[in-house]
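Table 4 source record.
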Amino acid sequence: MKKKHKNVFIQGAISAEFIGNSIAKHQTKTSIGAHNIFLGQVRADVIEGKEVAAIEYTAYEEMANAAFDEIREMTFDKYDLTCMHIYHSLGTVKAGEICLFVFVSSPRRKVVLEALEFVVEKVKAETAIFGKEIFEDETHQWKVNS
């Protein structure tokens, strides 16, 4: 039987309300002493004189969700985390909007600082997510991660 992977994808931008609600849900978990959050935001980069207005995200969802599961397991093996949440946008996200939300919690501050960087770097390097930069003049190109 195939393992069912947790779906990390959200259609469109990740709202401030969604992020706030995610944080609020952790107030009852009183063994947590620290949270760390990474918010990836679409930049209005200027490339060859054209400004990025949005990024359209697509993914091989099953493959990407499997990679996110592996990253989650690897991170819990390496760090003493209480919990971890990862959400990534699909579809069009405008410049200034949030496309990636990573949230880690632990009894200790130092752990969340190290774990968050580990997770974000793994997400960028190991997931089958693709971004098409859409310029103000409606032309587009595939995004290259830096």
